[in-house]
Amino acid sequence: MLIAIDIGGTKIAAAWVENGKVLERRQQPMAPDPIGFMAAIAQLVLGWPAPQQVAVAATGFINDGKVHSVNQNIIAFWDGFPLAERLAERFACPLILMNDGQAAAWGEYQVRQSASENSPDNLLFITLSTGVGGGLVLDRKLRIGPHGLAGHVGHATVSRQPTDGDLGCGCGRHSCLEKIASGTALGRQASAMFGRAMNSAELFELALTDTKAEAIINNAAMAVAEAISNVHMTIDLSEIVIGGSVGLADGMLQRIQLALARAPNLMQVPVSAAILGPDAGLVGIMQWANAKDA
Ligand code: ADP
Ligand code: ZN
């Protein structure tokens, strides 16, 4: 019995897994502090049997069992938080820990590989969610990197600017992709544009009838396309997979595809939606754990 957990900036998902099959899936909001976080974990696994293994995908980069937010505004207490140690106190069993974008990249790579002989060898997963994260499979291997950073495309800079002109990212840079195209960034730009508190889902709704709302989303899609071309020209990819609640929102994939179609031919690469939908990270970390077991 394995418990898989995916920790994002907004939500935590957990799955009770037996022999590779999900028996139950639950979700809780992400908490802003360690005590609330551990309470949410306890709530998620309430009544589940003691696991033989816990497999965790978490936003941020992971070094030596500790998690760090690249953007300190996403999860403030992710500042070297000893996630592996805290979870080891809660579950007395082996634990694996990986970045959520990397886990999702592995899940999406695996699902394509089992579906087709012509599956991509080089795949970049991009999650447009609370922040913008990602993961990279190169030559059929998941890349984690010596600092756990591989795939963190959200903090690559782009020449497009957010519509509210607010360029400073919580990672310490300016003009990061995350500052334009994350759910947080879309909500911020919408709130500035329309003079009232708005979130990303409300912006997508409004974009059905309002051209200014559409322009914010389209600008974000163009920034994503720019980042895709940058990575493609650096490492030469076969496929890009888009996930996260913003990436999977109505029409976002099509907007990114249209924006990328305007790039020179050489800078274009096929872009598709996450086959595993919002559970790419959860399924990815589960499969990674199973592979490690085998
Ligand atoms: P996490 O970051 O925890 O992995 P999500 O992938 O759900 O979680 O991303 C959360 C972000 O997506 C939030 O900024 C939220 O406002 C935004 N969001 C959630 N649902 C939608 C939707 N239907 N359309 C557009 N944006 C959404
Ligand atoms: Zn940044």
TrEMBL record:
It comes from the Bacteria. GO terms for molecular function: N-acylmannosamine kinase activity. It comes from Glaciimonas soli. InterPro entries: ATPase_NBD, ROK, ROK_cs. Pfam families: ROK. Gene3D superfamilies: 3.30.420.40. SUPFAM superfamilies: Actin-like ATPase domain. GO terms for biological process: N-acetylneuraminate catabolic process. This is ROK family protein.
